[in-house]
Design goal:
- The chain is mainly α.
- It has one domain.
- The longest helix has 30 residues.
- The radius of gyration is 19 Å and the shape is globular.
Length: about 240
């Protein structure tokens, strides 16, 4: 019902203006190569990680939190996941599934030396954003089938973890203290995720008290979906061209 209800809303002039403004603001930033590479480690941080040796648990923890808070592809996906979750236990369930997934592949990828093509990983991450927004607007129901969202969130969590690990593997990290350092980085990622998610949830809780939430739900998810397609297209181009 949300899909058809929202179709009517999105056709209104005001809703179109909101969608156009959001997309117009978002897309130019996403089209900048340095921005679309959401998992990239900042040059200063990369230089620091490559220069230190031994146990550096706290710095790695800090950088993990910083990376997650600034990783807008993660945040777009999580925003889509909790968009229509009203109970804290449901939020906790889905966020935990995502956290377990990306923690596994982050640790296994870096410590086990499992490498994957970063463009392929980030392309799938873009599709994860598209998937959740499409589900939120009732797209799968319209097509006549449903997916188990719990499994989808967990599996996409695995992919997001590889997105993190590929960028760390590009750096010449010291093997001295690597295990506790990467564990610290992963804990930092979780802390950063918790902080960002808490802010998003507070914003949604406030917004849900207004009639504009349902009026703008379709437009907002279409904007999220558009961002996902842009991320996917950019990474796919990089995969094809090898650039």
């Amino acid at each position: 019902m949300l899909f058809f209800y929202s179709i009517q809303r999105i056709l209104s002039t005001s809703a179109l203006r909101v969608l156009g403004t959001c997309i117009g603001t978002l897309l130019p930033g996403l089209l900048l190569p340095g921005v679309v590479l959401a998992h990239g480690v900042a040059e200063g941080d990369a230089n620091y990680l490559e220069s230190v040796t031994g146990l550096q648990f706290i710095p790695y923890l800090y950088l993990g939190a910083k990376h997650m808070v600034t990783g807008y592809d993660h945040l777009l996906f999580l925003a889509g996941v909790i968009f229509f979750l009203y109970r804290l236990k449901d939020v906790a369930l889905y966020v935990s599934l995502f956290a377990v997934g990306h923690s596994l592949t982050l640790l296994i990828g870096v410590l086990g030396g499992i490498r994957v093509n970063p463009y392929a990983v980030d392309a799938v991450i873009g599709l994860s954003v598209v998937y959740k927004a499409f589900e939120n607007v009732g797209g799968f129901r319209l097509l006549g089938f449903s997916l188990d969202t719990r499994w989808a969130v967990f599996l996409f969590g695995l992919v997001h973890g590889f997105g993190l690990s590929t960028k760390l593997q590009d750096l010449a990290l010291s093997q001295d203290g690597l295990v506790p350092n990467i564990i610290g980085f992963n804990i930092g990622v979780e802390l950063g995720q918790f902080t960002a998610l808490a802010l998003i949830l507070l914003l949604f809780t406030w917004w849900r008290q207004s009639p504009s939430f349902m009026n703008r739900a379709f437009a907002t998810n279409m904007t999220i979906m558009t961002a996902g397609f842009v991320l996917f297209g950019y990474q796919l181009a990089g995969l094809v061209t090898g650039a």
